[in-house]
Write a structure and sequence with these properties.
The complex is a heterodimer of chains A (393) and B (70).
Chain A lengths: L21 H8 L8 H14 L11 H9 L5 E6 L8 H8 L1 H15 L3 E6 L4 H13 L6 E6 L9 H10 L21 E5 H13 L1 H4 L10 E8 L5 E6 L4 H7 L7 E6 L5 E4 H4 L6 H4 L10 E6 L4 H14 L6 H19 L5 H11 L7 H15 L5
Parallel strand pairs in A: 1-2, 1-4, 2-3, 5-9
Antiparallel strand pairs in A: 5-6, 7-8, 7-9
Helix pairs in contact in A: 2-3, 4-5, 5-8, 13-14, 13-16, 14-15, 14-16
Chain B lengths: L5 E5 L9 H5 L4 E3 L5 E3 L9 H10 L5 E5 L2
Antiparallel strand pairs in B: 1-4, 2-3
Classes of the chains: A alpha/beta (393), B alpha+beta (70).
């Protein structure tokens, strides 16, 4: 590990003040390690494990375990997931626009670590040109030992789900597949496949340079490091901020200029996240541990602020109707259950005689009964709305 | 003979909601409000194992599975 050019503990790590070209990127962070021996690759996986890096796409799975599982397979492939299907989130796009080379460093490193010959970088169409140019610059500089291939992501909420990304690259159909087999065993064209969110790969690129202790110098001992957060809704300066994991929720809002109105509630994690009462949440650490007993989680790094006076149930009805429309259409309980649930939440929001018993029955009948977690996320959202906005009907 | 506990599992991507399974194995499989199977998450009792295996073979979409428990 080289000495850190970035001071331990200081932020931002991922988002430079100005988007640098390749030369500026190398000047800021130092050259990425490359040409790793077998021993160095294993040592790097161990370093990532010590760092405690977890997936930043929403699921939070330990990155080192995925790396090790894929590295154990024959002729694997790496997929960098910059699909960002979550409609309210922009953090992956901001990252790819501001630090394309950090993401590409991470993708190339993940390929080297796992023994993959290439990394496919699947990116939101808004940043396709930026990534193409970055890859061309790296090719001219002969920076990478692995092939980097940029693809435009499919649109739609479930398109970002790991197996859906693999199906998109392979067949042009962004639909999730049944598991098992796990992607780490049989993914893209049958090869062991590492699907990793682009922010996770950017952190990996820094851990490879500066080490686990540096990475752990911010965040909490149980959830180390920083994360990108999209802050939107009733705040003065909505946008993406990089925060230490565990930063109090109220402080994250302050980084976005503070609340622009008295707040009623916060949607945490994303469209598949959970509503929490604003007063209850503001002092809580923005971390899995800090939010668990509120039934919420940082998820894909999203905080949406709902002002007092706005209808939480109305917002929820809109979100659930959207999620129902975004079903990949493969599983019966999701195809039929989500529109039914959306209808009841709309009735509830409009005071048109919703049947709460039926709503709860349907939530139970949809939860955990899909090929992917799409229906589960919608159920979690509605249950949190019933808890948080219970006084609205 | 001691057999490992087995659980029924539905591959909802494959399932078309034909409902044969719930007719064949009403003790362990019911249908939701849209006609898709709800299987008990419990281990299949040994006395129903043969019936469960037969029901798995009956599924026209090969969506019902009997998986060894952990």
């Amino acid at each position: 590990m080289t000495a850190g050019l970035l001071l331990a503990g200081t932020l931002p790590r991922l988002l430079p003040p100005e988007p640098p070209g390749l030369a500026g990127h190398t000047a800021r962070y130092g050259p990425p390690p490359s040409g790793l021996s077998r021993r160095q690759r294993d040592a790097l996986i161990a370093e990532v494990a010590r760092a405690g890096l977890t997936g930043r796409g929403g699921a939070g799975f330990p990155t080192a375990r995925k790396l090790a599982a894929v590295a154990a397979g024959h002729a694997p492939v790496v997929v960098a997931n910059g699909t960002e299907g979550e409609p309210a989130s922009v953090k992956d796009r901001v990252l790819m626009a501001c630090s394309p080379h950090l993401v590409l460093d991470g993708a190339a490193l993940a390929a080297e670590i796992t023994g993959a010959a290439k990394a496919v970088i699947v990116v939101h169409r808004d940043v396709r040109v930026i990534l193409d140019e970055a890859v061309a610059d790296r090719a001219r500089a002969r920076l990478d030992r692995v092939r980097l291939e940029v693809r435009t992501a499919a649109e739609g909420f479930v398109a970002g789900q790991a197996s859906a990304v693999v199906q998109w690259v392979q067949r042009g159909v962004p639909a999730p597949t049944a598991m098992p087999p796990r992607l780490a065993q049989r993914g893209l064209r049958g090869a062991p496949t590492l699907v990793q969110n682009v922010e996770t790969l950017a952190h990996l690129a820094l851990i490879a340079r500066y080490g686990a202790a540096w990475f752990r110098s911010t965040g909490t001992p149980a959830e180390p490091g920083s994360m990108l957060v999209t802050v939107l809704g009733a705040v003065r300066e909505p946008g993406v901020r990089e925060v230490a994991i565990g930063t109090p929720v109220g402080q994250v809002l302050d980084l976005a200029g503070g609340a622009s109105a008295p707040l009623r509630a916060l949607l945490l994690g994303g469209y598949f996240g959970a509503w929490v009462d604003a007063a209850e949440a503001l002092d809580r650490p923005f971390s899995s541990a800090g939010l668990a007993d509120l039934g919420a989680a940082p998820g894909a790094g999203l905080i949406a602020a709902l002002p007092a006076g706005a209808s939480g149930l109305g917002e929820t009805a809109r979100l659930v109707r959207y999620l129902a429309g975004e079903s990949a259409g493969q599983c019966g309980p999701c195809v039929f259950g989500l529109p039914a649930i959306a209808g009841q939440v709309e009735r509830l929001a409009e005071g048109r005689g919703a049947d709460l018993g039926l709503l709860h029955r349907w939530l139970g009948q949809v939860d955990g009964r899909g090929g992917c977690a799409h229906p589960d996320g919608a159920v979690r959202l509605v249950r949190s709305a019933l808890r948080t906005f219970g006084g609205e009907w | 003979m001691v057999t490992a506990p087995a659980r029924l599992r539905v591959d909802f991507i494959a399932c078309a909601g034909r409902g044969l399974c719930a007719e064949a194995l009403p003790g362990l499989i019911t249908l939701d409000d849209w006609g898709f199977p709800i299987v008990s998450g419990q281990a299949v009792p040994p006395r129903l194992l043969a019936d469960a295996r037969a029901t798995v073979r009956l599924c026209p979409k090969l969506a019902l599975r009997l998986e060894p428990g952990r």
